[in-house]
Design goal:
With about 500 residues, this protein is of the alpha/beta class. It is built from 13 helices and 20 strands. The strands form 4 sheets. Strands 7, 8, 9, 10, 11, 14, 15, 16 and 18 form a 9-stranded mixed beta sheet that branches. Helix 4 runs antiparallel to helix 8, helix 5 runs parallel beside helix 8 and helix 11 crosses helix 13. It is elongated and about 80 Å long. The protein binds ligand BES and zinc ion (ZN) (2 copies). One zinc ion binds next to strand 10.
Amino acid sequence: MRRARDCAGAIRKGNRMSEEQLKTELVDAAGIAQLDVDALVTIAHEGVETSDPWRKELERTGEFTGKLNEIAIQFSPAGHKARRVVLVGGGKADKFTQDEVRKVAGTATRALKAKGVKTVALVLDSLEPGFAAAAVEGAILGDWEPDRHKSKKEEKHLEKFLIAVKDPKALQASFERGRWLAESQNLTRELVNEPPNLLTPLVLAARAKKMAEANGLECEILDEERMRVLGMGSLLGVSMGSAQPPALIVLRYRPATPASGDHLGLVGKGVTFDTGGISIKPAEGMEKMKSDMAGGAAAIGAMQAIARLKPSIAVTAFIPAVENMPSDRAQRPGDIVTSMSGKTIEVLNTDAEGRLILNDAITYAKQQGCTHLVDAATLTGAVVVALGFVNVGVFSNDEEFQAKLLKAAKAAGEKMWPLPLDEEYRELLKSPYADIANIGGRWGGAISAAMFLKEFAGETPWVHLDIAGTALLEQTRPFLANGATGVAVRTFVNLAVSW
Ligand code: BES
Ligand code: ZN
Ligand code: ZN
């Protein structure tokens, strides 16, 4: 019997929510001298000859060289209505890509808002559509703070961010795409940062439903009974120890005119808190396990952007949401569960729970007609050992599909790196008692975890993203607040939009 209690604090008022994000606008650069803003920002590159006496002086004194993310501020500039003119370093001109634009816009946003600036205009010389998108992304992502639950907001916010370009009409569509993408990524960040007492599986489901209703997506929440009927013994085994009931969140997007019969499934790990269960984790750092639903939150954020950008491929998201708790009703090491696929699993370690909920979600996604699957999961500490906090670990059973995903990731500016899945690794998962064991021993832990999922993806082209090292940022960067990053959202969306 479950004794789930309502969390009274789950719905609070007075906080800056994802619905009210930084206001942005694309304007004509012809009128920049007349722009009534607190700060007019221009990007200056390293090693470029300048005739501007102010910049010459800054370079002479070494105060500004144009290195990426450097900042210099001039007050009451002559010939401008703006209160300040700001130089922000763009690094080397020939290395200035979308990723640098995103960082520069984020850095300018964060540096200026900290000074109490409210209105900013960034001058963008390039007519490259990707640059306009990246600039607005950088501003919206940079302005965002994880301060939802602070009674007194210490962090300041901008009120308005303008991007001044030579041809606003030509760039409007990409500007809007960037805005939607960043707002959706912030929705993911907000969900991931939510504390585990306030974001239980049912609350996550309610938040997904609210997003779906606001954006015209179909939303279905499968409850425990429904999952039992479907035979999801592997997922339900993880949920057994918790007083919080589980939910399988399903979000559906259908294009008006599909370009093909392809159907993309996005599967996201939604463990709202991972104590490890009976194989309990050490106390130190356990609070970070509130982010063990970052893959699920990325799928929810991506679906919001997909609903608005309307790609011509069908996309369905599946988010198995559970809490992994030790208790008198919890799953034990040694338990054997039967998954929806029919395969039996020996649970040797209850802390390897991600793969136990994902396999049933993958089987269900295939049953629902998905032709291609991508999952995102904070799956293993081992991927952090392998790739640190920089790259997402990528695994696949289909080279072509993996190449497609890596291309989408690169275009999105999300760093991802492929790791192998040779058949030899399957041996690690042998169990004397069941069809497969849920852990593969000490070495190659990210690979054996992915190998476990591969077993359930079967013949369906599938890519697995292990985001354990990249979902959380421990220290604030010049362009991004610490906490949840919203990684995988932009890749998911790019994959669908460029399909
Ligand atoms: N949620 C963790 C993985 C994780 C670790 C995420 C660090 C973010 C940061 C996952 O459920 C887990 O506990 N994995 C175990 C697997 C092991 C028992 C085979 C791990 O990585 O230690
Ligand atoms: Zn775990
Ligand atoms: Zn976990």
